[in-house]
Design goal:
This protein is of the alpha/beta class. It folds into 3 domains: 41 residues, no CATH class; 209 residues, Rossmann fold (3-Layer(aba) Sandwich), CATH 3.40.50.740; 169 residues, Dimethylsulfoxide Reductase, domain 2 (3-Layer(aba) Sandwich), CATH 3.40.228.10. It contains 19 helices and 21 strands. A hairpin with a 5-residue loop joins strand 20 and strand 21. It starts with a strand and ends with a helix. It binds iron/sulfur cluster. The site of iron/sulfur cluster has 13 residues, from helix 1.
Length: 433
């Protein structure tokens, strides 16, 4: 048995970098330090991957070579008038960069899963800024934590043990007793069960509750009604007091806030709530980014185009208008005439009208595993898995770049090398045209 230390878990935005993998005869036989989600990512990997590319012929799947798969992708993408290049959150930044350049080359739209998770957070940050910090700061300094519209015990299981509730650190020797955790959610989640204070609000009531808390912190509790979106005034006053008493507070928000009524205005209000608290003490606010390197896609697309997601190159220059150039909108309007889906599963998450359109057009899926999108695509290309048999740079949810590790070689090409070949071939074609 060989032990590989300091492996990075590629599953969620925590990107835990302390995983220990046991290898027996070149196969993963054990995983230490990971949560259940991360452990299954490693342990279930081997048996589930496609052996090679598959292409739809009538109602049959046929095996094709990587060369044939690349030929098909080059033909489809170079001939498309409005290609959509979507996904990217499971890819390393090196692949994401090629994707942005490919979109520019073919006049396509490049969008990441951000547009269906924390896109509204970015819009709010563009309006009013981002008083954020690293998870290291939170671990070492934050005595009060708010989880708003997020349930890390089920979605980011080690967030609490590495950075907040259970994380002993420089100023915290008995973190569980010394830190206060406030959970704001519409239902009593597993995280709410362990909270110091659980605030249960009505569905869609986030904006009202944030406004009420801001008003109380401003000293105008007298104008707050007895109930705000299902929350009693007495509890709001108590929560505002806990927040003001904090020496260092950290507010984490999830898609429960970004994807409910009000969308980016909720986040703007949350940032302004944190600004209000910063008149009294020190507070920061951060999104709970979901997929492993979804944050990286925003960084990379911004370096290259100036915009973080939903970048439309059809005019020859980068254009950005969420609600118009976002993947769901382009598919729902039936505009895309070809799609490249990178390491994501819109078939499982997009509205039905989008899935139906994906099934009508040539759709090329890069994914090592069969998924709901397999049933919609014309070609699926499996590649090496980032963090297992491929390596590269990924951004943690707090914007810290981390180098993932390759510790196996299963003989699969990386998506970086495959996409680079597609890019070079199309560039050559366009150069000769
Ligand atoms: Fe992996 Fe996320 Fe679990 Fe850490 S918390 S081990 S990154 S799934």
């Amino acid at each position: 048995v060989d032990n590989v230390r300091h492996v990075v878990c590629p599953y969620c935005g925590c990107l835990c970098d302390d995983i220990l993998i046991e290898l027996t005869d070149g196969k993963i036989s054990g995983v230490e330090n990971a949560c259940t989600l991360g452990a299954h990512k490693f342990l279930d990997d081997a048996g589930n991957r496609l052996k090679g590319p598959i292409m739809r012929k009538g109602d049959q799947w046929i095996d094709v070579s990587y060369e044939e798969a690349i030929d098909y992708a080059v033909q489809i993408l170079s001939e498309a008038d409005r290609p959509l290049l979507y996904g990217w959150s499971g890819c390393v930044t090196e692949t994401q960069a090629i994707g942005a350049h490919l979109a520019e080359l073919i006049g396509g739209v490049v969008d990441s899963t951000t547009s269906v998770c924390h896109g509204p957070s970015i819009l709010a940050i563009q309006e009013v800024g981002h008083p954020g910090c690293t998870l290291g700061q939170v671990k070492n300094r934050a005595d009060t934590i708010i989880y708003w519209g997020s349930n890390p015990i089920e979605a980011h299981p080690r967030h609490l043990s590495r950075y907040t509730n259970y994380a002993d650190a420089y100023f915290f020797h008995n973190a569980f007793r010394e830190r206060k955790v406030i959970v704001v959610d519409v239902r009593k989640t597993a995280t709410a069960e362990i909270a110091t204070e659980y605030v249960q609000l009505e569905q869609g009531g986030d904006y009202h509750v944030l406004s009420a808390l801001r008003t109380i912190i401003r000293g105008r509790a007298d104008i707050i009604p007895d109930m705000v979106a299902g929350v009693p005034k007495s509890q709001l006053i108590r929560v505002a007091d806990i927040c003001k008493q904090a020496k260092f507070g950290a507010l984490f928000f999830g898609v429960g806030v970004t994807m409910t009524g009000g969308k980016y205005k909720n986040i703007r209000n949350a940032i302004e709530f944190v600004d209000e608290l910063n008149r009294h003490t020190k507070w920061t606010i951060s999104p709970m980014r979901g997929h492993s390197n979804v944050y990286g896609s925003n960084e990379v697309f911004t370096w290259i185009s100036g915009y973080p997601f939903a970048v439309d190159y059809s005019r020859g220059i980068a254009f950005y208008n969420p609600g118009e150039t976002t993947a769901v909108d382009i598919l729902a309007r039936g505009e895309a005439d070809a799609a490249l889906i990178m390491a994501s599963d819109p078939g499982a998450h997009f509205p039905r009208v989008c899935s139906e359109h994906l099934a009508k057009i040539p759709t090329i899926l890069f994914d090592p595993y069969p998924s709901a999108t397999t049933h919609l695509c014309t070609l699926q290309i499996p590649s090496a898995v980032n963090g297992i048999d491929a390596e590269g740079t990924a951004y943690r949810m707090d914007g810290i770049p981390i180098r993932t590790r390759k510790f196996l070689d299963n003989g699969y090409p990386t998506d970086t090398s495959l996409l680079e070949q597609i890019y070079n071939r199309i560039k050559e074609l366009k150069g000769n045209a």
